[in-house]
Amino acid sequence: MPKSSTRITQSKRSRSRRSASPRATRSAPSPSRARTTTRSAVTEPKAPFAIEAHRLIGHSVVQRATPNCGGSITPRYLVFHYTAGRSAADACDWLCNPAANASAHLVVGRDGSITQLAPFNIKTWHAGVSQWEGLIGLNSHSIGIELDNAGPLREAGAHLQAWFGGRYTKNEALFAQHRLDTGPKWWHTYTDVQVQRALDLALLLVREYHLLDVIGHEDIAPDRKRDPGPAFPLDAIRSRVLGRRDDTRERARVIAEALNMRTGPGTEYELAGPPLAKHTTVWVLEKSARWTKVDVSDETDLEGWVANRFLEPVTD
Q1: At what angle do helices 192-209 and 234-242 cross, to 10 degrees?
Q2: What is the domain count for the chain?
Q3: Over the stretch 76-123, which tens digit does the pLDDT of each residue have?
Q4: d(Cα 159, Cα 167) in Å, to the nearest integer?
Q5: What residues are annotated to the active site?
Q6: Among 64, 137, 221, 288, which is disulfide-ready with 225 (CB 3.0 to 4.6 Å)?
Q7: Which residues pair with 312 in a beta bridge?
Q8: Based on the domain organization, do 196 and 260 belong to the same domain?
Q9: Rounded CA gap, 277 and 244, in Å?
C-alpha cells in the first residue's frame, strides 16, 4: 500500500516552575487545588482505553483478524503510518487480504474508530525493509498503527487529487515540505479526533509495553517512505508521551476581545474556564490543524484548547 506523510509544528516549552509531567485539563480556576504528579511521563484524567491479553478495549474499538501476521514479538517501538487510501474500511480490507502481504496492529479512522487486526505481541507486516537504532527489520520489534489519510495530493483544477482519484479541497490539506524532500507539496490533513486517538494510544502502549520511542515509517525507511508526513504532529506526540522538553519556549497572545478555552479541540467540548481577555499571554503545549492547547501564564494555572485564528505568536 503506498505511503507518504504530513506534519504539524511541534509545540515546545520549558518552565522551571512546572513539573515535567503535563497536568490534566482543569475545568475552573482553583489556585488552592493541589497538583498531581506521578512517575509516568504524562498524567491523564482517565484512560480511554485498556489492554487485555494484548487486545485493545475501549469505545469504538472492534477486532478483526488479519492472516498477514505471525510469530510472537516483544515490541520496543511504536510506528505510525498513513494508509494512503480511500477509507479506513478499504485499508482494513486490504490489510486482511492474503495477497497484500501487509498488515498492522491498528487502523484509526478519520472519525476516531479503531480496528485491531492482530494482538500487540504478534508480528504484523507494516514496516517492510527498515532499520532503527541498530535494529534491522522493525516488524519484529514494533507495534504498527495505520491512520486513515490520503497522503500526498496533487492539484487538479480547483481541487486536489490523491493517487487513487479521490478529490479534496484545499481546506482539507496542508501545503508543506517534508523534511526528507527538496520541495513542498499538498498533504491530506488528519482530523482532530484522529490526532487525539493517536496520542491516547501512544500514551497507553508506551506505558503498557515500556516502549523506547514513538517514530514514523519515514524514520525507519527514509529512502522510500514519507508517512505519516508533515500534517501529522509526530514530534509533539513523541514529546508529550515521552516527557521530553527543551529550552525553547513558544508563547502566543490572545487577539480576540474574549476567547473561550475548551477541554478539547472543538466547539463541542465544554469550557475549561472563564474566557481569556485580549492580550493574555499563553504557553503553547500542542497544536492541531485548527486548535492549540495552551497553558495560561498566570496564577490560575489553567490549560485548555483555543481556536488558532485568535492567537498570534509572541516573538519578544
Answers
A1: 40
A2: 2
A3: 999 999 999 999 999 999 999 999 999 999 999 999 999 999 999 999
A4: 6
A5: 146
A6: 221
A7: 253
A8: no
A9: 30
